Amino acid sequence: MQAALSLSGLTKSFDRPVVRGVDLTIKAGEFYALLGPNGAGKTTILRMVAGLLRPDAGTISIFGTDALADPVGAKRLMAWVSDEPMVYDRLTPLEYLDFVAGLWEIDASRARSSANELIDWLGLRPHANELCGGFSKGMLQKVALAGALVHDPKLIILDEPLTGLDAGSARQVKDVLRQKTEAGVTVIMTTHILEVAERMAERIGVIADGRLIAEGTLAELRARIGRETTLEEIFLDLVAQGHDPGSEAA
Ligand SMILES: Nc1ncnc2c1ncn2[C@@H]1O[C@H](COP(=O)(O)OP(=O)(O)OP(=O)(O)O)[C@@H](O)[C@H]1O
């Protein structure tokens, strides 16, 4: 089966190497969580995939489309949801979704039904006609997520989508992502909330110091650590091993 996302030798330096030759393959329909300590390079990897940052080396393929050679074609297939929601203050959620649908040249009636579905799923109905300028960060995050999903992407990339959301909003976002994966959409997200990775992700990748140091199902990661334990323990063990030059890397 064709991979939803395939990274090979992905590399990026700023004043120092930040992403060091990452190879990663995510299957279509998979829910994949990227974990790692602060500054490990997770956001940088996802920003390169989303076409916001040019890699120094490596390849990025999205459903077989070379994202570096055909960035527009790749962007049509995916959604990027940043941890810093950017929504126009002077628009209501419905106007914003209408605007985004216009950018994608989506048929008006399809756009309206998709916008209304997302507004309901994310609990934004009571605020659908209020200006976004007065919204809390959590509400803006949900509007930004809805905007990213209007064009029916096959791959959804999210950077810390649940940070700062209250329990109800987090549940709504998780439900939307679950519904999407059930419909065959692929999701890759970074999170520091290990319980979310544990419950939602089919596979987990651990990034430390710019490298993919381990990946697999929770059971596979447990087997690698060699004991029945929590994801938190596994994560801390793997990261500690990843920093040990003598350790085996994935
Ligand atoms: N535009 C930039 N210019 C210079 N350095 C950058 C830039 N973007 C990221 N970095 C650096 O690259 C490193 C990796 O950052 P990145 O945001 O990818 O980490 P992360 O794993 O997402 O961390 P966190 O979990 O804290 O969000 C950090 O040291 C960061 O300061």
TrEMBL record:
Any one Pfam family match given in the protein's UniProt record, by short name: ABC_tran
InterPro entries listed in its UniProt record: AAA+_ATPase, ABC_transporter-like_ATP-bd, ABC_transporter-like_CS, ABC_transporter_ATP-binding, P-loop_NTPase
Gene3D superfamilies, per database record: P-loop containing nucleotide triphosphate hydrolases
Domain ABC transporter: 5-234
Keywords assigned: ATP-binding, Nucleotide-binding, Transport
Molecular function GO labels: ATP binding; ATP hydrolysis activity
Protein family: Belongs to the ABC transporter superfamily.
Protein's name according to its UniProt entry: ABC transporter ATP-binding protein
Species this protein is from: Devosia aurantiaca
Lineage, broadest ranks: Bacteria, Pseudomonadati, Pseudomonadota, Alphaproteobacteria, Hyphomicrobiales
